[in-house]
Design brief:
Elements lengths: L12 E5 L4 E5 L5 E2 L34 E2 L4 E2 L6 E10 L4 E11 L10 E7 L8 E6 L5 E3 L5 E5 L5 E5 L6 E6 L6 E8 L1
Length: 192
């Protein structure tokens, strides 16, 4: 929760952009609340909590940015840097556990004008409280279903799709070639 210097929660506040970070002020005051190098804002209440963004004539945008370095000197992101995590937690009667999440990572090497990324959709299986990938959308257009033992769907410039196992290397690849003739499905004996 946003609190004043002694940690007392403040219910009504105004957020303003400071010199380097957003600053939170108690309503009607000029005294900053919160602070520190890591910013955490928690809203808790008995009942529903909603975040409602409205725009008339334009888009509502939530920008989640990632760079290495500092705010004053941002440095290039690198492959596999997390860009954002949106995690849904549920309570099991003892503690909070992850139930589902959407994650974004850098997927390749950023360069001037190029910031490749991948998007993960993850869920927790029954009996666990941590997420594992169920769908991954990669920068190269590949779609992966499941975790490391799932399947990968990719296509090449000629429109041929390949469905490949992502397991231990003993899986069979299936190639589906689409052209002007009737669709042919070719089972290729190469391993994944």
């Amino acid at each position: 929760a946003i609190g004043d210097a002694d940690g007392t929660p403040v219910k009504d506040f105004t957020m303003k952009q400071g010199a380097s970070t957003p600053q939170f002020f108690g309503s009607g005051t000029t005294t900053e609340i919160g602070g520190g190098t890591d910013a955490t804002m928690a809203i808790a209440r008995n009942g529903s909590v909603e975040l409602d963004l409205r725009s008339y004539g334009g888009s509502s945008v939530i920008g989640l940015h990632r760079a290495n370095g500092t705010e004053g000197t941002p440095l290039v992101s690198v492959n596999l840097n997390n860009i954002f995590d949106i995690i849904g937690y549920s309570h099991d009667g003892t503690t909070w556990g992850e139930s589902a999440g959407i994650y974004a990572q850098v997927d390749g090497v950023p360069a001037s004008g190029s910031t490749p990324g991948r998007l993960y959709l993850e869920t927790a299986a029954s009996g666990t409280n941590f997420n594992r990938p169920v769908l991954v959308l990669r920068a190269n257009g590949t779609v992966e279903f499941g975790d490391t033992n799932g399947v990968r769907l990719s296509n090449d410039a000629d429109g041929a799709f390949t469905l490949a196992g992502m397991g231990n290397g003993s899986d069979i690849d299936w190639n589906i070639n689409l052209d002007d003739s009737p669709t042919t499905i070719v089972m290729d004996s190469t391993t994944g």
